[in-house]
Amino acid sequence: GLWWGLFAIVPLVRLRDRRSGPSAASAGRPLSGGFRQLLATVKDMRRYPLTLFFLLAYLVYNDGVQTVISQASVYGSAELGLDQTTLIGAVLLVQVLAVAGALLLGRLAQRYGAKRTVLGSLVAWTATVAAAYFLPAGEPVWFYVLAAAIGMVMGGSQALSRSLFSQMVPRGKEAEYFSVYEVSDRGTSWLGPLLFGLTYQLTGSYRDAIFSLVGFFVLGFVLLARVPVHRAVAAAGNRAPERI
Deepest in the core among 102, 108, 122, 243, taking most CB within 10 A? Predict the structure, then answer.
């Protein structure tokens, strides 16, 4: 809570509302107007199929990311027999290293491009989740190593994905499109836990359940690799950076 509260001060103090007034879709009744605006934005996004294609790829691999984060403690306690102190320490380690990972992957993106860097992070996610299958029970050190690996790729893959998406958004519609970005993320967040739970029910093994999440990263990699980023940026009316 302190972590989120501290960083919430930055946008609350520094950001300014640049709207000239409420949109026609959201004027009057905020709740129903919000849904109308969301529907209008989704319809508008159909004019940019490459942006939608990227969003699909993101939703697939990010569902794997979110499931690993949410189910890691279950895996650590139920399968590896680790205590709460170890699990809490691993969670804190992930949050701290996510900052360093985001900075590191940001530097790599400057050199190799954001798309290539995200693809590389998906390879790292695949290797990390596969390695989790072989972790020995009752060995907190190896669980910390796994947490460190997750932290190093988590922050960067999410931050660079937002950066890529922002390049594919028409100017003046950033808030609308990122609203759909977040709503879509929440709308598909049940797929990973569903696969995790079904795999455990069918096999009785949390190791098989955690390994099943590799599919999200492999499929996400394939979809993202097929996104023509430069064409998507140009189709949105933006100028692509030299490396993206």
Answer: 122
